[in-house]
Amino acid sequence: MSPAPSSPVTLRPIDAATHQAFVEAHSGSFLQTPAWGRLKNDWRAESLGWFDGSGADAPLLAAGLVLYRPVPRVNRSLAYLPEGPVLAGGWDAPYALDVLRTLRDHALAQGAFTLRIGPTAVVRRWHAATIKDAIADEQVRSLTQVPADVTDETGVRLRTLLTRLGFEHLAADEGFAAGQPQFVFQLPLEGKDEAAVLAGMNQLWRRNVKKAAKAGVEVTRGTAADLPAFHTVYTETAARDHFVPRPLSYFQRMVEVMTAEDEDRIRLYLAHHEGHLVAATTWVRVGRHTWYSYGASTSDRREVQGSTAVQWRMVQDALAAGAAVYDLRGITDTIASDDPHLGLIRFKVGTGGEAVEYAGEWDLPLRPLWHKAFGLYMARRG
């Protein structure tokens, strides 16, 4: 646990460089970087810092990117910290309560009707073998029915604290959280080399890695000029998997603002077989945390395992970058045999990683009538 602050915790805006350096140093979420605020240009972004005291040389204890979504024609907004804020001492720090209280007061002063946060405090972890056994059990429909291999008291205590402060937990919708995922799948890399990671994968994954190599799948790093090719495969994937794709301009803007902040913040990977693009992905890094962000694959030539090849290359590059975690992002908690998301979790479980449950996203009503009206509006939007 971090030592208690020697002076009252104070909150004030900070510049982008200070904010970026803090998030990097503590391997915070890429959704908490200043670049993410610049990408979300339909929101108003603000970088905040929490300090041990009010002096110019006061130590920085926490930082947060706040995104304000305004309501048209009125001076009110939703204040949202996706996967934030980031605390130097984690959510067990003795100043966590002060961070939440000062954030509440600041959001209220900024005209927010609701404060939404998404702390990445871990509550539970399930290892790959546990998940595999649960999937095989027809009586089990959700990970939440399975005893966790690890329960983290920090996340448990944080949920209790948020409830005590009046925050409302946003329930998952069909396994996914209201905004950012509450359940993610991560591959721990600390202290491992390529051989150890490969040995931890299941037999199918290892076989498919070898199959892709034998078939001659070539994985390369792309550039912004390759985004149209990526987007073509991505839109094919969206049609096949029944989701609404983002426009090409979104990815072009993403690469532009994220590489302007750090030239190695985001990477594009392309898997080709005999000159044909068969899979493409984006990879993001902050500090020692790496993420698989977006992925796409063609229906043609699926037998050459382009998706496996590109994943393995990103894991290898995460190791080379000194990452402690390779994050495959969201999963559902549902593991029933008739659930349409089961294939996704099976694919990720094959890496030998673990399912992680975060504390989730929480709303604090600051102006109850506005908060209720916004909730009704979102419910009607469906």
Automatic annotation (TrEMBL):
GO MF, one example: aminoacyltransferase activity
GO biological process, one term: cell wall organization
Entry-linked PROSITE patterns: FEMABX
Origin: domain of life: Bacteria
InterPro entries named in the record: Acyl_CoA_acyltransferase (IPR016181), FEMABX (IPR003447), PG_Glycine_Bridge_Synth (IPR050644)
Keywords carried by this UniProt record: Acyltransferase, Cell shape, Cell wall biogenesis/degradation, Peptidoglycan synthesis, Transferase
Signal peptide residues on this chain, from the entry's feature table: none
PANTHER family for the chain: LIPID II:GLYCINE GLYCYLTRANSFERASE (PTHR36174)
Family to which the UniProt record says this protein belongs: Belongs to the FemABX family.
Record's protein name: Lipid II:glycine glycyltransferase (Peptidoglycan interpeptide bridge formation enzyme)
Organism the protein comes from: Lapillicoccus jejuensis
